[in-house]
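Good morning,

Attaching, inline, the backbone tokens for the sequence recovery test we're adding to the shared suite. The designed sequence is right after.
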């Protein structure tokens, strides 16, 4: 049993995320302020602010005895937002360092638990200068030198590829269907037993939501269009054509248009022709691994041979860029297995390769099965390093990255590109420098208030049946987010 006792309940979840870097547990019990540590493993945390300084102290207790402790002090900052940020960082750093002392384990990203380290690094560079940001990452957050260099390389690689936050907008269209459910999947992906019979109704709802695109996009510059999911190619050819044609109209003049084909077992020559003829410039054909026994184990229901066939079909269509996803840390796989998969994929000559680390989400089957079969965190970290070396030697460079909760070894996902073929939508999505108008079940629209450094979101309903029943409500949510006030702001600016 792991417990956390903090006098700052507002940071309870943030501190739990730091504890989970070291302790493999989903459930962390809360004890009341003033309780003394009892049996089991306990983190005791307190925070105070005096004389413009914030002081955060964390203690690690086992069966009531203190085993490690750390006190961290820093400037409390100015203004409500900055003060909250400083206090939260102090809390996380003190808990991280106490646990680091107790376990003797350095985490690759130190006390950082957020999903966007490169965004944080860029913001820090703006506020503190490059040297200040480097010192913050290495000396305060305890990020490893290797991960800092990796993040900095990505921030540098993105220079010249960033959007104009005031004018540019991305369009996302979600297709929440898939042929079978992968054991690690936590996306909105309804399998045929659920969506059979609902596909046409979903298309009707989606088309009615897309009817408002013109109204919302007026005065904005569409930079990238992305049809994702789920797996868009799980749609019938007729419906795929319908959505791809609509997307092409909405994104006329956009710099890129991506369709995530994803599962090779959904890709046909006819569907590739549809995607290409609608003007999509980019496509993903994913396999995650080329070991058939792993593909069975992770529930993907396609073989390596099917992936190669789908890839070659896509290659013959002449897309600007093909992306292939792989995952490090899959059950039963060794470092050599993962390297062999990557070597074969590099041999296919794709423009993009995305290297994921397995993340065992609560909503996935992996959360309950397979727990004893995974490579260790150290082995998974080794797989990522080896992949990076192989990709760099093949002239790929990392151009975006993100982290997820429950990711093995507290590692990261990274997208690599070569030949200047970075995917702008991926950069925009992770760096949050460009608004997005999202359509379809589970889509999340974002509006960037660049001068205020603020982001507001409007989420569409995830549940398929609810979405089908309420497209007008999804429109109203977006209208509220991107409505009249935005035009006023723009008019004032000009
Ligand atoms: S292919 Fe993607 S969307 Fe489909 S089940 Fe697997 S992870 Fe989920």
């Amino acid at each position: 049993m792991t417990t956390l006792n903090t006098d700052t309940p507002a940071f309870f979840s943030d501190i739990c995320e730091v504890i989970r870097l070291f302790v493999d547990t989903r459930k962390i019990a809360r004890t009341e302020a003033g309780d003394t540590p009892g049996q089991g493993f306990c983190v005791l945390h307190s925070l105070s602010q005096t004389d413009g300084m914030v002081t955060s102290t964390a203690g690690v207790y086992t069966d009531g005895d203190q085993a490690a402790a750390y006190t961290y002090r820093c400037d409390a900052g100015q203004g409500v937002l900055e003060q909250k940020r400083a206090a939260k960082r102090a809390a996380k750093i003190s808990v991280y360092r106490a646990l680091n002392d107790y376990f003797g384990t350095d985490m690759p990203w130190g006390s950082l638990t957020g999903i966007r380290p490169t965004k944080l690094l860029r913001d820090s560079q703006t506020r503190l200068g490059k040297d200040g940001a480097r010192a913050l990452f290495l000396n305060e957050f305890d990020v490893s030198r290797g991960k800092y260099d990796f993040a900095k390389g990505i921030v540098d690689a993105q220079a010249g590829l960033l959007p104009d936050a005031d004018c540019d907008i991305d369009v996302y269209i979600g297709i929440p269907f898939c042929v079978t459910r992968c054991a690690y999947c936590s996306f909105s992906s309804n399998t045929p037993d659920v969506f059979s019979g609902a596909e046409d109704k979903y298309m009707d709802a989606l088309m009615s939501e897309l009817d408002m695109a013109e109204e919302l996009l007026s005065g904005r510059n569409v930079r990238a269009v992305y049809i994702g999911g789920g797996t868009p190619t799980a749609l019938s050819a007729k419906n795929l054509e319908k959505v791809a044609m609509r997307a092409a109209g909405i994104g006329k003049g956009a710099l890129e248009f991506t369709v995530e084909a994803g599962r090779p077992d959904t890709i046909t020559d006819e569907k590739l022709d549809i995607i290409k003829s609608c003007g999509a410039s980019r496509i993903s054909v994913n396999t995650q691994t080329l070991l058939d026994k792993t593909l069975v184990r992770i529930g993907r229901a396609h073989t390596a041979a099917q992936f190669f066939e789908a890839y070659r079909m896509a290659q013959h269509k002449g897309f600007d860029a093909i992306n292939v996803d792989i995952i490090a840390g899959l059950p039963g796989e060794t470092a050599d297995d993962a390297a062999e998969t990557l070597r074969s994929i590099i041999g296919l000559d794709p423009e993009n390769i995305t290297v994921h680390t397995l993340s065992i989400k609560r909503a996935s089957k992996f959360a309950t099965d397979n727990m004893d079969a995974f490579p260790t965190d150290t082995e998974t970290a080794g797989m990522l390093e080896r992949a990076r070396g192989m990709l760099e030697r093949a002239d790929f460079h990392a151009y975006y990255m993100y982290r997820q909760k429950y990711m093995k070894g507290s590692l990261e996902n990274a997208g690599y590109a070569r030949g200047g073929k970075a995917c702008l939508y991926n950069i925009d999505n992770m760096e949050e420098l460009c608004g997005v108008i999202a359509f379809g079940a589970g889509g999340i629209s974002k509006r960037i208030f660049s001068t205020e450094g603020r982001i507001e979101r409007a989420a569409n309903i995830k549940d398929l049946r609810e979405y089908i029943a309420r497209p007008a409500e999804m429109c109203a949510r977006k209208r509220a987010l991107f409505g009249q006030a935005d035009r006023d702001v723009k008019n004032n600016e000009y």
